[in-house]
Amino acid sequence: MAPINYDQEGVVFDIQRYSIHDGPGVRTIVFLKGCPLRCRWCSNPESQDPKPELFYKDSSCIHCGKCLPVCPVAALSQDNPGFVDRDKCIRCGACAEACPTDALTRSGKVMTVNQVLQEVRKDATHYRRSGGGITLSGGEPLMQSDFARELLKACHEQGWNTAMETTGFTTPEIIADVMPHVDHALLDIKAIDPAVHMANTGVDNRIILENAIRTAMTSKSVVVRVPVVPGVNDTEQAISDIGNFAKMLPGVETVHLLGYHSYGENKYGLLNRAYPMGDTPDLPKDALPPLKKVIESLGLNCMIGG
Ligand SMILES: C[S@@+](CC[C@H](N)C(=O)[O-])C[C@H]1O[C@@H](n2cnc3c(N)ncnc32)[C@H](O)[C@@H]1O
Ligand code: SF4
């Protein structure tokens, strides 16, 4: 195996400690920026653009104007305080540094594998006791495949367990390159019907379904995950289609059903974007048990949440 490149850089938008979801034991979740999909319900809209970007919180802005002179490309407006011309913005973050009230903040920063390791190491004693480790999420972690691979290799060298939340929309070469370093793959399948998938995520699902087979053949443990979204895949037929696909993946025994929630809605506002789900209510709690039964009737284990 090639030596680990600890200087490999990636763009990280969050590191969450002490998670008891998204893999076994206590975990640190490292969120990588960039995603080729645009799921209408995505709870992490700040993950989608690969580069760092600005959040603007109108209610915190005191209109002091300190952001205006520091922007090197005049992407902010004197007449309309807090307005960010996102096509002009070069993501340097100078305005966020100048902002005294954090009305402007930057999501995403460049980190090396070594810098992420130093952060993750703070939880290492918990990993040992609980069988936990690191989970890469995003965004789509495979969009920064060199960074993901080097970080996973470095975690394994420390003896830490690794997991990845992915939708597998990438090339077969990247699956072969990265997935052998993942102990637990949490593989999202959002819809089997190609038209439904395209309309709600913006991409064709053929490559995802093909890569699901490749992942199942490469990874040590794979769980299929389904965000259950009203009007998209919340019918017994749609869940049965996903269950039947999961069932034929080698080694897959478990499906997680995640009910749609709108927790990410406010972040669309901070990015000056409209929320694509409008006022669609969260999936009612009682919608999931019947769908769990559908999965179990196929001979698979099913867990609500993940
Ligand atoms: C933000 S995604 C990142 C990983 C990868 N891009 C993916 O979609 O699998 C992490 C998990 O959150 C789920 N998720 C995203 N938005 C959600 C929402 N509004 N309600 C419930 N689950 C959601 C995804 O389906 C996925 O299982
Ligand atoms: S694949 Fe994941 S990160 Fe990408 S848009 Fe969909 S939910 Fe968001």
UniProtKB/TrEMBL annotation:
<keyword id="KW-0949">S-adenosyl-L-methionine</keyword>
<dbReference type="InterPro" id="IPR017900">
    <property type="entry name" value="4Fe4S_Fe_S_CS"/>
</dbReference>
<dbReference type="InterPro" id="IPR001989">
    <property type="entry name" value="Radical_activat_CS"/>
</dbReference>
<dbReference type="InterPro" id="IPR058240">
    <property type="entry name" value="rSAM_sf"/>
</dbReference>
<dbReference type="InterPro" id="IPR007197">
    <property type="entry name" value="rSAM"/>
</dbReference>
<dbReference type="InterPro" id="IPR017896">
    <property type="entry name" value="4Fe4S_Fe-S-bd"/>
</dbReference>
<dbReference type="GO" id="GO:0046872">
    <property type="term" value="F:metal ion binding"/>
</dbReference>
<protein>
    <submittedName>
        <fullName>Glycerol dehydratase, cobalamin-independent, small subunit</fullName>
    </submittedName>
</protein>
<dbReference type="Pfam" id="PF04055">
    <property type="entry name" value="Radical_SAM"/>
</dbReference>
<dbReference type="Pfam" id="PF00037">
    <property type="entry name" value="Fer4"/>
</dbReference>
<dbReference type="GO" id="GO:0051539">
    <property type="term" value="F:4 iron, 4 sulfur cluster binding"/>
</dbReference>
<dbReference type="GO" id="GO:0016491">
    <property type="term" value="F:oxidoreductase activity"/>
</dbReference>
<comment type="similarity">
    <text>Belongs to the organic radical-activating enzymes family.</text>
</comment>
<dbReference type="InterPro" id="IPR040074">
    <property type="entry name" value="BssD/PflA/YjjW"/>
</dbReference>
<dbReference type="InterPro" id="IPR034457">
    <property type="entry name" value="Organic_radical-activating"/>
</dbReference>
<keyword id="KW-0408">Iron</keyword>
<dbReference type="InterPro" id="IPR012839">
    <property type="entry name" value="Organic_radical_activase"/>
</dbReference>
<keyword id="KW-0004">4Fe-4S</keyword>
<keyword id="KW-0411">Iron-sulfur</keyword>
<feature type="domain" description="4Fe-4S ferredoxin-type">
    <location>
        <begin position="50"/>
        <end position="79"/>
    </location>
</feature>
<keyword id="KW-0560">Oxidoreductase</keyword>
<keyword id="KW-0479">Metal-binding</keyword>
<feature type="domain" description="4Fe-4S ferredoxin-type">
    <location>
        <begin position="80"/>
        <end position="109"/>
    </location>
</feature>
<feature type="domain" description="Radical SAM core">
    <location>
        <begin position="21"/>
        <end position="301"/>
    </location>
</feature>
